[in-house]
User: What shape does this take?
Amino acid sequence: MKDRFGRPITGLRISVTENCNLDCFYCHREGCPESSREMTAEEIGKIIGLAKEFGVRKIKLTGGEPLLREDIVEVVRAAAIPGIKDVSMTTNGTMLAGLARELAGAGLARINISLDTLNEGTYERITGKRALREALEGIDAALEAGLKPVKLNMVLLAGVNEHEVEPMIAYTSKRGIILQLIELLDAGGKNFTIYHRDLDDIEQSLRERAVAVRTRRSMQARRKYILPGGEVEVVKPMHNSEFCMHCTRLRLTPDGFLKPCLMRNDNLVDVLSHVRAGDISKCRSTFIEAVDRREPYFKKLVLK
Ligand code: SAM
Assistant: This one.
């Protein structure tokens, strides 16, 4: 299924809980409003089944912190159904060590682990917790469980971790991990102006060192730099019309609203109420409505 801008919908990014055990000061919380309702694993499975009918083939589980859910293995199992080609998760990794194998066994194919720093003090400054050791153990466990690829998400923050790109490249390259350098998105509030760090100079230096550069069209046209010892992807969403034009994902909030865009909350469509009422035809209409409401957030400026 394509939206009004010709963008096919192939992915569903599901926030399975609004709760998190960390408190990163820059976090956009997947753009989800607070709520008291939460989808069960079975309901998530039903919505995925429906999404599949509309062409969704990739499921990404996120949060909050998805591993806080006691039934997270069940949620993964509900997502890994025939027809869904790729089930992945983004997690802060602090609770992954004891779960990685079970998650892989339930059908989790790959994983993104968020780690902005290798320094314990900086980790605490960013997340509000002293949990770097647990996160590093989680990364080791993901590798041992055979999740592939393991990607590390590093959000660049001016004056906080911008000097840590090289140590992070060394850390990830040594372990066969792909490093994703992510530009800070404006989540509202004053933090964006203080901490936003343009990634252009970092990208230029990667380009100069790369043995190959690939553009991943299906992944919002992000660039991947193949370095002699490792791989680095650069994610630059801010004011990037190309990024939005290649967006192929719909989102689902923990309380069961289809969310056409990370950056907006004025166009959500309630699917969970219809799932709970057992009204499949209304569920289908909500999908069509949500896809119809999709529009690129950052558009190309056309001067006349
Ligand atoms: N708790 C999980 C985790 O840490 O991966 C999943 C939720 S977290 C919101 C998902 C990803 O969004 C993380 O990699 C995080 O770094 C990133 N993120 C959060 N706020 C952001 C922002 N303002 N700009 C860019 N990335 C952000």
Summary: The two ends are 32 Å apart (CA to CA).
